[in-house]
């Protein structure tokens, strides 16, 4: 399984967002890019994505044509500030989408997902190759 990210543009956005002071409040509907870890664990691959502040109902995972796509959305709390002005807001909100090429050695129909404590965990089982057995054929 290659599990190569199909889109790393979010990392460039993160570089600029982290390097420069935030002078204005981000616009609604912006993208955020949580960290994703991928590891090989014997008979399967494990993908974990940090999705703090995202509700389980707002997470969508799908597979199509060998591409695994993670999507999530979190919305900003609407508050009225009467005694002060927000100087800096670091809590994220917006949409998230990340896609990975699965490769030929993943059993797409058996991928499992769980979500606990803000972490999405996907388990993608490897295809078990059948070992060709040598069979003797009797000659009559």
Written account of the structure:
With 140 residues, the chain is mainly beta. It is 8% helix and 35% strand. It has a single domain, classed as Immunoglobulin-like. A four-stranded antiparallel sheet has the order 1-6-5-4, with no helix packed on it. It has a four-stranded antiparallel sheet with strand order 2-3-8-7, with no helix packed on it. A hairpin with a 2-residue loop joins strand 7 and strand 8. The chain is rod-shaped and about 95 Å long. The relative contact order is 0.26.
Name given to the CATH architecture: Sandwich
Assigned CATH class: Mainly Beta
Number of domains: 1
Number of helices: 1
What does the secondary structure layout of this molecule look like, with pairings?
Blueprint (H helix, E strand, L loop, with lengths): L3 E2 L3 H11 L16 E6 L2 E7 L8 E6 L2 E8 L19 E8 L10 E5 L2 E7 L15
